[in-house]
């Protein structure tokens, strides 16, 4: 799917106090949801832990992950955002069309 018509960058900020296994489980759930929306994760990057400019859900730091995804139709952002909002280990996210 490298020649996909629609490409997005999904930035996810995870709770830094979550255990490593919980973070891995959350990352896997995000990838599964992306696959369920008929998109392919072309690349995934761990950007590490960073200090936030302001507190989000009581956290001063966050673990940043970037997913580069591609597909042949526009993403169903409402469904995807609902999933991201419900996941407790995700404190913030951003979906960018590239």
Give a count of the beta strands, DSSP E runs of length 2 or more. Answer: 4
CATH architecture: 2-Layer Sandwich
Given this structure, which CATH class is correct?
Answer: Alpha Beta
Low-confidence stretches: none
CATH topology: Alpha-Beta Plaits
How much of the sequence is in beta strands? over 45%
- Indicate how many domains the architecture comprises: 1
Name the structural class.
Answer: alpha+beta
Shape: elongated
* Major beta sheet, strand line-up: 2-3-1-4
Helicity level, as a percent range? 25-40%
Write down the Rg: 13 Å
How confident is the prediction overall: mean pLDDT? Answer: 92
SSE order in H/E notation? Answer: EHEEHE
Features:
98 residues, alpha+beta, Alpha-Beta Plaits, 2 helices, 4 strands, 28% helix, 48% strand
Q: Would you mind describing this structure in some detail?
A:
There is one protein chain. A hairpin with a 2-residue loop joins strand 2 and strand 3. By secondary structure, the chain is an alpha+beta fold. The mean pLDDT is 92. It has helices at residues 20-36, 77-86; strands at residues 6-14, 40-56, 59-71, 90-97. It starts with 5 loop residues before the first strand and ends with a strand. It is 28% helix and 48% strand. It has one domain: Ribosomal protein S6/Translation elongation factor EF1B (Alpha-Beta Plaits). The relative contact order is 0.35. Strands 2-3-1-4 form a 4-stranded antiparallel beta sheet, covered by helices on one side. It contains 2 helices and 4 strands, in the order βαββαβ.
